[in-house]
Design brief:
Layout lengths: L11 E3 L6 E3 L6 E2 L5 E3 L5 E11 L6 E4 L7 E5 L4 E9 H8 L3 E4 L10 E9 L2 E2 L3 E7 L2 E5 L11 E7 L4 E6 L11 E7 L4 E4 L3
Parallel strand pairs: 2-12
Antiparallel strand pairs: 1-4, 3-9, 5-8, 5-10, 6-9, 7-8, 10-11, 10-12, 13-14, 14-17, 15-16
């Protein structure tokens, strides 16, 4: 006699972007992935998913956002940095739901600029998929006061509040001079502290 025992293959995740998601302070919620794909050869439905900030999680800043859809509900845990999705829904509906997951940093002024790693996994009962991840990378930004684009006079003092990783590089762009030779960029390099102030010059 020959006995054939079926094996329940695990769901499979693929297709997530390999490039980091660029994030700027104050950007609000940004979609984490638009290309992730979900497949399951044995099951037409899935029962859950987890989205966890596993690398450099900042509990006072980082949030994962999800709007309940297609019978799938989300629960956020600030303690663990985990968004848990539950509810029986089709594989396609889980794929679409994962493509609406958003990352947000609620510190809009001076967030911790370490890159965050976000991991995604789905499940069909006791069968769990592989884990895919995407990095959220912080883009250095500067807030300019005391001049900026409205600076019109020599020796105006510019103050820049910077976020991101030092050493910063700031490019000062001068325009509007009747002599085109003076409409040139100046570069300030190796800025190691913020806020940073400097004076404009002709």
């Amino acid at each position: 006699n020959i006995t054939v025992t079926g094996v329940n293959d695990d769901p499979v995740l693929s297709g997530i972007e390999i490039t980091p998601l660029p994030y700027t302070a104050g950007a609000g919620p940004l979609v984490l992935t638009e290309t992730i794909h979900v497949a399951d050869t044995d099951n037409a439905t899935l029962s859950g998913a987890t989205v966890i900030i596993s690398g450099n999680y900042q509990s006072l800043e980082d949030r994962i956002r999800f709007t309940n859809v297609s019978g799938i509900s989300g629960t956020w845990s600030t303690a663990t940095g985990t968004m848990t999705l539950t509810g029986t829904a089709s594989v396609a509906n889980y794929r679409n739901a994962l493509r609406t997951i958003r990352y947000e940093n609620i510190n809009t002024v001076n967030p911790v600029s370490l890159p965050r790693t976000v991991e995604i996994r789905v499940s069909a009962g006791a069968a769990f998929s592989n884990t895919l991840s995407r990095v959220v990378s912080y883009v250095p930004t500067g807030t300019i006061s005391g001049g900026g684009t409205v600076c019109k006079y020599q020796k105006d003092t510019i103050v820049i509040d910077l976020t991101g990783e030092p050493a910063w590089i700031v490019i000062v762009r001068r325009t509007g001079n009747s002599n085109p030779l003076l409409n040139k960029d100046s570069t300030i390099t190796n800025i190691t502290s913020t806020p940073h102030s400097f004076q404009t010059f002709a």
